[in-house]
Amino acid sequence: MLSSAVIIKEAFSVPEKAKIQQVPLKVYQAEDRLTVAAPMAGMEPEDLAIEITDDGRLLLDGKVRGLLKDVKVLLLDEWSVGAYYRDYLLPEPVDGSQATATYGNGVLVVTFPLANRFVPARLTLSSNGVAHGISDNVALP
User: Fold this and answer.
1) CA distances from 54 to 20, 28, 57, 108, 123 (A)
2) Residue 123 to residue 126: CA distance in whole angstroms
3) Among candidates 58, 57, 60, which has minimal Cα distance to 20?
4) Which is the most buried residue in 16, 58, 113, 126, by most CB within 10 A?
């Protein structure tokens, strides 16, 4: 005869903590362009910042959004919405001032024209729909 056991589970409140997540990248090159794609789920376009430095680094930054509010019981915590960060050395010189960035379905895509030297720039995104955005380029000195 099988005995029935009673399992008592004690629940306690644990606040969700913001974690900085390193963004995985997909980088590919066409004849005259370099494209970088990065999944950054749960962001709004205005939460994302993209910078191309004069030494060829691509900096991706996503602000924290959507931490659990109030008291909840956190049962499993395997992912979070932001903060995202990635510092990636671009394999070829690009013109950041002519780059385009789009964000849709949780994926940031930045496309750069290849160049003779790195041209630094800072890109921000403007919203053009719910969780969709397109870049506003700002060339850096």
Assistant:
1) 25, 21, 7, 21, 14
2) 10
3) 60
4) 58
